[in-house]
Specification:
The protein is 53% helix and 0% strand. By secondary structure, the chain is mainly alpha-helical. The longest helix has 29 residues. It folds into two domains: 45 residues; 200 residues, Cytochrome c-like domain (Cytochrome Bc1 Complex, Chain D, domain 2, Orthogonal Bundle). It has 14 helices and no strands. It starts with a helix and ends with a helix. Bound molecules: heme C. The site of heme C has 24 residues, from helix 6 and helix 12.
């Protein structure tokens, strides 16, 4: 056989053994597949977790679904890139640039790259006030002069489907989001309580009443939460909020926020 290989080449010989050739081909494809696949699985385990990043509350989750349903992500990204100008513009109030560990519970992620409106990854730090969001959603031009953002007045009228929340949380749990069984079962009650708190906040700020079961409450809860978990992490320990001179810089947007 040695002579045969020499004269015709190893490849020719292998081709003459269909079964062996098939097995070897399959093996080499499998090895190639594993080399591609394994890093994905391993990276998933080695993403730098941020301890303060928790799954969305039921109400925030509902708000996130409304955000997606209304197509907000077609105009707003949620990803601050690690460049100085980005951090100054969008990484306000200790948020810094976006880290992988922030989006471990995002299904699907909403990083985006289209910025017709500003990046919202740190919106909860920039504009924590509930009433501002209610007014802005009802009529963007009432809070932001000349805004080209469309109005969403129906969110102040349509009701939240509280009863559908348990199923949503259960599905996410099946996909790996660590929701406690208690949270899943009481999702509607937990969401109602949070919505009521935000509705009270809006009333106290002089806004409309009777919003506690309206979709806008879920959206506001979601917007208020954006970036807050990351800021909590940098409060707690050494921060890596980006180049040290940029993270805390004031920008036009921050100045705007005081209105
Ligand atoms: C057609 C593009 C477009 C769509 C769709 C859109 N926005 Fe906007 N958004 C803008 C623009 C432009 C601004 C900046 C002017 C302003 O504040 O209204 C903005 C501003 C914002 C701000 C204030 C950001 C800040 O801190 O300065 C928030 C919050 C926001 N949008 C949320 C939403 C949500 C939630 C939705 C979906 C319900 C949405 N946007 C849909 C274009 C859009």
């Amino acid at each position: 056989m040695g002579r045969f290989i020499k004269s015709n080449g190893m490849h020719r010989t292998l081709e003459g053994w269909p079964l062996v050739f098939t097995v070897l081909t399959t093996l080499s494809i499998l090895v190639g597949g594993l080399v591609e696949f394994l890093p994905l699985v391993l990276v998933n385990n080695s993403v730098d977790r941020i301890e303060t990043v928790e799954p969305w509350t039921p109400l925030e989750l509902e708000g996130r679904d409304i955000y997606i349903a209304e197509g907000c992500n077609t105009c707003h990204s949620q990803q601050v890139r690690p460049f100085r100008h980005e951090i100054e513009r969008y990484g306000q109030n200790g948020g810094g640039y976006s880290k992988a560990g922030e989006t471990v519970y995002e299904r699907p992620f909403l990083w985006g790259s289209k910025r017709t409106g500003p990046d919202l990854a740190r919106e909860g730090l920039l504009r924590p006030q509930a009433l501002w969001h209610v007014r802005h959603m009802e009529d963007p031009r009432s809070t932001s002069k000349g805004s080209i953002m469309p109005p969403y007045p129906h969110l102040l009228e349509k009701k939240i489907d509280f009863d559908g929340l348990t199923a949503k949380l259960r599905t996410l749990k099946r996909l790996g989001t660590p929701y406690a069984e208690e949270t899943i079962e009481n999702a509607a009650t937990i969401a109602r309580t949070q919505a009521k708190a935000i509705a009270t906040e809006v009333e106290e700020q002089g806004g409309p009443t009777d919003l506690e079961d309206k979709k806008i409450m879920a959206l506001v809860a979601y917007l208020q939460s954006l970036g807050t978990d990351v800021a909590a992490a940098s409060d707690a320990g050494p921060s890596d909020a980006g180049p040290s001179d940029a993270g805390s810089a004031e920008s036009d947007v921050t100045a705007d926020a005081s209105k």
